[in-house]
Amino acid sequence: MDRAVNSDPVNTADTGRRQRWRNLIGFWLLGLCNNFAYVVMLSAAHDILQKQETQNTTTPTPAPNETNIEISNNNNSSRYDCNPVSTAAVLLADILPTLLIKFTAPFYIHKVPYGFRVLVCFFTAVVSFLMVSFSSTILMSIFGVVFASISSGLGELSFLSLSVFFSRDVLSGWGSGTGAAGVAGAILYSAFTQGGLTPQVTLWIMLVVPVILAVSYFFLLVFPSSFPQWRRHEDGHSTSREVNSQERRPLIEEETDTDEDTETTQEEQEDKHIRPLTFTDQLYIMKGLLKFIIPLGVVYFAEYFINQGLMELLYFPESHLSHAEQYRWYQTLYQIGVFASRTSLVCFKIRKIFLMSLLQCLNAVLLGFAVYYQFLPNPWVVFIIVLYEGLLGGAAYVNTFFFIREETAKREREFAMAAASVGDSLGIALSAAASLPVHHYFCSF
Q1: CB half-sphere exposure, 243, CA atoms < 13 A
Q2: What is the SS3 assignment for 246?
Q3: Per-residue pLDDT tens over the stretch 391-403
Q4: Which of 183, 361, 412, 445 is the most exposed place for a label (fewest CB within 10 A)?
Q5: Rounded Cα–Cα distance for residues 23 and 262 (Å)
Q6: What sign does the CA torsion over 209, 212, 216, 218 have?
């Protein structure tokens, strides 16, 4: 009662705004770091794998002004200037650990407190950087990729579940951060390596990323008082604690307590003592989530079918841009589109995810015909389509989780957010599997 009577409403409002901004920035950094380490580590793994493959083979006498890629392409008779191995093969190896985590973890991860989950994400990210930087074999580099995938997959489903304890606007921060990760990761890694640093030294510098993730979580976020940081959700669910919580609630609520942060806190206070979800409950919720998971999976299937199955085949020899430069611009513009649309949640929402699924499939069909018939005049047309593709994919992701939060009962939100995260990973894995035979087919010409 003393706090309710004596507190300054202006100061309370300022404190609420500061907390909201801290949480928004915190989730932006969590999204950035969770995906950033994955992007950077994969880029470094490719470089080190190439170096190891060169060391494990008889080194030929290099021709003047020729790179390894140009030498390997001398024996390539395909009209599509194909690499010996599709980039989809690398993607498939990258996504499987994340997919396994997202398929299984929602059913048991609630038994692991959030603090411990974040520590696991931190340590696996650090291990991935160190393993790849010190790797002396291809197998060791692959295990580094696996640890990065574990960190990213566990982090994504955990932070999406975590968002239900805060106001809904943290989802826009998370979405924007994950979108920025692709752009920032690719640019910074390229800048460091182009500046003369080796991939190994660059990875050592990037060890700061998991540190920022841990600091953002443990020191920047402002958690509700009821948040189970180091204990399971089932702990302390006694009637006496519920009564005491009700006794401590002020009889007269302040006007400033009507903002979203306070509403979220009150919801958690009211719902934290409800019995845990049973396995049957979880299966029932999963059934209801299919209307979100399937459209999201279709969007990402079509999206990564384009990125990993078709992009490397969309080559224009007449352009002043080399094949590598064209592909690099495809990926960069795609990431810019993803970043822009994942940030758009603060401006507008799109409920019809299935419409974005249809439009993304049309993109895949159009570019598939473009690869086969080669009717597009120059890479600039592809640049526009790829940017549009990224906009669709990012918008589908962030709007899916926004409406899951809005349309799911409070006691089911935490599980629903984690379970629905399997949609994009499933679509990516299926697209990688489908892209392999497509790559083989076109490169046989």
Answers
A1: 3
A2: helix
A3: 999 999 999 999 9
A4: 445
A5: 13
A6: positive
